[in-house]
Structures are given as structure tokens and as C-alpha cells.
Amino acid sequence: MSRALVPVVSRLPSLSRLRDVVLHYTAHDQGRPLTPRPPRARDYDLVRHETHLRNRAQVERYLPDILGRALARIWIDPSFRDRFAADPVGTLAQYDVFLPDTIEIDFVTEGTTRPQVVVYERPVRAMPRKRLLYLQLILTAAR
Q1: What residues have CB less than 8 Å from 111, skipping those under 6 apart?
Q2: How do 97-98 and 51-52 pair as beta strands?
Q3: From the first residue on, what is the mean pLDDT of each consecutive set of 10 residues in the chain (143 residues)?
Q4: Rounded distance between C-alpha atoms, residue 10 and residue 43, angstroms
Q5: How far apart are CA 92 and CA 98, in angstroms?
């Protein structure tokens, strides 16, 4: 699968799609009921495999790269942007990125020309949250 922002169209099916088709028809041939699979992101995946970030150190190390991919997708995909704006943590979970319960994410669009993603940690619900990091797309041109 291409990791580019614009997916490379191939004439051959991806291995994961081919595997899903084989499993689907195998279940049908064996007389088992076919269960519909929930839609899974294929294009523009944020990670290559299911990712569980378990603590603050892992969040600080891996989440900026993942959120950078999410910001790039937000820039070009309005439906992803709407889902991410409504529920950033839930949207990341749909794309196999799971965060600790102490992590909160805000998607900020007001007062800025480009959207920002701000990551907070709140170790105890009664305590104020602490900003860990924020990301914003910066466009540069070079000659």
C-alpha cells in the first residue's frame, strides 16, 4: 500500500482486500452465515497496525507523527475533518490508534488560519489538564 497522501492506484487488489474476499467466500461455501464487517479505513491509514499508546512517554514519542498524518488528511478530506472535529479520540480509535484514558485531544479551528490539534493530559479528572503538545500545518515554499 502506498504511504503517499494521494493513493497509488494499482491494478492488483491489495493483499488485505484479497484476504477479506477469500474469507467471505470460504464462509459462504461452508454454509456459515455471512456477517457484515464494519467499514475499515484502507486509504490514508494513520498507522500500519493497531497501536496502543499506554503512557505519557509513548504519547509524546509516537502521537505527533500520527497526528501529523491526521492533519494532512484533514487538509484534503472534509468528511474526515468533520469526524475528527466532532470526536478526535474516537476517530483515532476507528483508525486503530488507542490512547490512555488520561489523554484528551482538542481540534481548534477558531482564531487560527490553519487547524491545530492540541493534546492534553489529565491524570485525575478533578485536576486541571496539562498541555503536552500541539500540532499545526505549516506551509513553506522554497526555490
Answers
A1: none
A2: parallel
A3: 50 50 50 53 75 93 93 90 95 94 92 86 89 86 78
A4: 12
A5: 7
CA distance 112 to 34: 48
Note whether 75 and 137 are within 8 A (CB).
yes
Closest CA relative to residue 66, chosen from 84, 86, 78, 39: 84
Q: Is this prediction's pTM over 0.70?
A: no
Beta strand 103-108 pairing with 116-121: antiparallel
User: Cα separation of 135 and 116, whole Å?
Assistant: 6
Q: Which residues pair with 51 in a beta bridge?
A: 97
Angle in degrees, 0-180, between the axes of helices 56-76 and 78-86, rounded to the nearest 10: 140
**Residue tagged 461455501 (cell numbers):** 29
Distances (CA, A) of 23 to 10, 29, 48: 22, 10, 21
